Amino acid sequence: MSKTTEIIQQFDEHVIPSYARRPIVFVKGKGAKLWDTEGKVYLDFLAGISVLNVGHSHPVVVDAIRQQAGLLMHVSNLYYTENQGRLAQALAGLALGGKCFFCNSGAEANEALIKLARLWGHEKNRFEIITMKNSFHGRTLATLTATGQDKVQKGFDPLPSGFVHAKFNDLESVKEAITARTAAILVEAVQGEGGVIPATAEFMQGLRALCDEKDLLLLCDEVQCGMGRTGKWFAFQHFNAEPDAFSMAKALGSGFPIGAIVTNPKLADVFQPGKHATTFGGTPLACAAALATLQVIEQENLLQHASDLGARFKKGLQALVEKYPKHLAEVRGLGLMLGLVLAASAKPLEDKLMEMGLIALATGKQVLRFLPPLTVKPSEVDEALDMINDACTEMFGDSTAEEAKSE
Ligand SMILES: *Cc1c(COP(=O)(O)O)cnc(C)c1O
Predict the structure, then answer these.
(1) How far apart are CA 228 and CA 214, in angstroms?
(2) Is the dihedral of CA 37, 52, 102, 116 positive or negative?
(3) Ligand 1 within 6 A of 244 CB?
(4) Interatomic CA distance for residues 202 and 217, integer angstroms
(5) Which of 136, 147, 280 should be mutated for ligand 1, with most atoms under 8 A from CB?
(6) Nearest to residue 340, comparing CAs of 382, 273, 385?
(7) Average model confidence (pLDDT) across the chain
(8) Among candidates 247, 101, 254, which has minimal Cα distance to 188?
(9) Domain ranges of the chain
(10) Residue 379 in contact with residue 368, Cβ under 8 Å?
(11) Through-space distance between the first and last CA atoms of the chain, rounded to whole angstroms
């Protein structure tokens, strides 16, 4: 039996089958490259679903984790540690200017936003949170209820009450969802799982104005679109509309689990002692990984790089849409968060690319999502484009013959 088969067999025998896993076993990552047990090299344009924004095993992050692990990994949140304070200062310095709470995942960060909104609205008896259809906010009971997708909720009822879904990019539908019980609106500035759909500036600014007018909290889920992914630190910064608080996780620790919320000064002290907690939130080790990640994004100018390389990749994908108009519909997204919209299911293209050595992910039904590391090289973007072109040619036929005729 091959090593790969052995690992998969052991895994399947003992790990709960809550994922449809592809039969590949990865053993090593560096930058935008991944290696499997068979020695095959992949170009990773998924980056752990926007976790490896600084690439796999960035030396600065690896060093920070190694050093901190040898010094102090964990003490209870009953005490102070330097890294947590430093990280909070750094994050609140990037946006909103209030304070942070640290946890361990995206769902937990959103859970913290939900509890914050409920606590804030409690005296006024306001607890409802409006979220968007097609959104994704996590898999805990509250966050899957916030998530506007039936498939995520099916089988888990009764669901917690207090969540209402409105239509994304449709201000009227949000207005209609507001009641005397509404406390907050929660939105992704770019929907990720929903199919890489950016909010419009009109929508985001409209939400901000609506929240100001009705005294509601605007909350942003930056778990996937944050941390430089779209060419700004946080995706809402594209739209000139600031939330009152936002959540993040995924790329914050470059693979080391850490989640956080950042609030504005108004909400900074809503959680008083005893109101919210988690054992592992903001350990010195997790915060060391996050501080190193911020340092890399700054020092390597990755926001600019994400914009530039995003533009290069988008242009290349758009050329493919023009080349295969019957099969490819459009390219959308911001920075290095891009979706290629197909005329039919995106899964066969995902499979074909995987075979060729390019990792991407079909999202929704007809969208192929690309989330390469922000450190991706121009040559790697071009290499990916070549592979996508070759895959399309193989699957959809050679359109260059027709082009040559018309020229
Ligand atoms: C991944 C994701 C989450 C959930 O994060 P977990 O760390 O898996 O709990 C929440 N919101 C968005 C937008 C995400 O992409």
Answers:
(1) 31
(2) negative
(3) no
(4) 18
(5) 136
(6) 385
(7) 96
(8) 247
(9) 3-54+301-406, 59-299
(10) no
(11) 54
Choose among 376, 65, 62: nearest CA to 228. Answer: 376
Q: Which residue from 130, 102, 127, 47 is spatially nearest to 374, judged by alpha carbons?
A: 47
Out of 221, 223, 252, 371, give the residue to mutate to test ligand 1, the one with the largest number of ligand atoms within 8 Å of its CB: 223
Q: How far is the CA of 250 from the centre of ligand 1 (A)?
A: 7
Q: Give the model's pLDDT for residue 399.
A: 67
Domain 3-54+301-406 has CATH 3.40.50.150: no
Can you give the pLDDT at residue 405?
44
CA angle 10, 12, 17 (to 5 degrees): 150
- Ligand 1 and 249: CB distance under 6 A: yes
What single letter denotes the amino acid at residue 144?
A: L
pLDDT at 404 over 50: no
Residue of 114, 137, 145 with the most ligand 1 atoms within 8 Å of its CB, for mutation: 137
- pLDDT per position as a tens digit, 309-329: 999 999 999 999 999 999 999
Q: What is the pLDDT of residues 282-306, one digit of tens each?
A: 999 999 999 999 999 999 999 999 9
Give the pLDDT confidence score for residue 97 in this predicted structure.
98
Q: What ligand 1 atom has the least distance to the C-alpha of 257? A: 7
Centre of ligand 1 to C-alpha 222, Å, is 9
User: Scanning the structure block, which residue is given the tokens 């008896």?
Assistant: 125
The atom of ligand 1 lying closest to the CA of 143 is: 10
Q: What is the full DSSP assignment across 350-385?
A: HHHHHHHTEE-EEETTTEEEE---TT--HHHHHHHH
* 41 pLDDT more than 90: yes
Tell me if 148 CB under 6 Å of ligand 1: no
Q: At 190, phi and psi to the nearest 5?
A: -130, 115
Give residue 273's identity as a one-letter amino acid code. P
Tokens of 128: 């409802």
Architecture category of domain 59-299 in CATH = 3-Layer(aba) Sandwich (3.40)
